[in-house]
Amino acid sequence: MTDEDKHTSRRDVLELTGVGIGAAIGISMTGTVAARVPCTGCDGGGGGGSGSGSPPPTPQTGPYTVDNGEVELTGWAYGTDVEAWFEWGPEGDGFPYDTELRLIDDNASFTGHPVGEESGITYEYRAVAYNDYGRTEGATRTFSF
Asked: Compositionally biased, Gly residues: which spans (predicted)?
């Protein structure tokens, strides 16, 4: 073994000394760690502690339009830092599809464009709003063309 292998850094000395002194005089040290993580299932409780916040207000599901065979859904979302989109699907099948995501900075209208719909079929849709504290859903409406 060479002298180089026996080298102890200043950090190693301080760590060993601190542990030795703590053990010699019977000091017990404990600590805590906290993390801020959004909790979408906590009913507005945030990530623990004294979190404050709530899901966004219920969005409004607006009317639809058809232009050159393309359907456009309209809705309104309220609040700041809200993500909004539409869920949609054939009537009676639930909402298996989503439109594109829109970011809402302040109360605003938004649109969505279903992809893959067929003429002659009735579809249902609803506006959805989401923030760090949960999601809310607007009323269900239908469209067909």
From this structure: 42-52
